[in-house]
Amino acid sequence: MNSRILNLFRPIAYASATIMLAAAFASAAFGQTVVDKTVATVSDGVRTELITYSDLLWQLALIPGIPIEPATSEDLNSALQLLMRQRLIALEAGRLPRGTEPTEEEVRNEIQLTLDSFPSPADFIRRLNIVGFRSIDDPNFRALMEQRISIQKYVAFRFRSFVVITPEQVQRYYREVYTTDFRRNSPGRILPPLEDAREEIEAILTEEQVAADIERFIDNAEARAEIVMLTEL
């Protein structure tokens, strides 16, 4: 899978504020100017999530440097793999009561963080226009940002809140990884003591555990789900 797009799934696990999710909690039926078609469906036997061609373009439009005029087959297929994983999480999330809706401030912050990842606001707006959004105030684009926030909240609830990092794990990471990396990357500098590095190490180990838990969840969900490919990209 194209590593630039594969990295987009990691923020789901890490809940970081980078380019992340598209339509994760609803079927992708936003209005657009591009010619649309259903590319694949993902079903758990009760609900079915659609993945459309425009979904793929929306994903790619939010990644700096990836061509969208036209999009390559490799990038489209990588975006499709990412979206199928998102839909599997969406199906699971749909079984739970919906949490609090994203606030206006959260939406504004998410838009700004996405905007900041591009070389210039003009470049970002140009890419939005290409895939059918009028501006960052377009209701469909805002819905995309709201869905991104919603899945971040779901991941925090479903995976992050259950992670426990023990002192032994921190000590082992400090001894086996942190110390080696620090001496390689910062030659001549004094190695911080464990207590000074503890918070950073706990954060790293938490994100690794969340990522591993999500991978196990996806593997199990894929085994249960019915995924139908309808269009060759």
Describe this structure as you would to a colleague.
There is one protein chain. This protein is mainly α and 233 residues long. It has two domains: 3-161 and 214-229, no CATH class; 162-212, no CATH class. The protein has helices spanning 3-14, 53-61, 73-93, 104-116, 121-130, 139-158, 167-185, 194-224, and strands at 38-43, 48-52, 226-229. Strands 2-1-3 form a three-stranded antiparallel β-sheet. Strand 1 (38-43) and strand 2 form a beta hairpin. Helix 1 (3-14) packs across helix 8 and helix 2 (53-61) crosses helix 3. The longest helix has 31 residues, at 194-224. The radius of gyration is 19 Å and the shape is globular.
Give the gist of this structure.
The chain is mainly alpha-helical. It has eight helices and three strands. It has a three-stranded antiparallel beta sheet with strand order 2-1-3.
Query: Largest beta sheet: what is the strand line-up?
Result: 2-1-3
- Mean pLDDT, to the nearest integer, reads 83
Label the overall shape: globular
Q: Structural class from helices and strands?
A: mainly alpha
Instruction: Count all strands and give the number.
Output: 3
End-to-end separation in angstroms reads 14 Å
What is the succession of H and E elements?
HEEHHHHHHHE
Instruction: Tell me roughly what share of residues is in helical segments.
Output: 55-70%
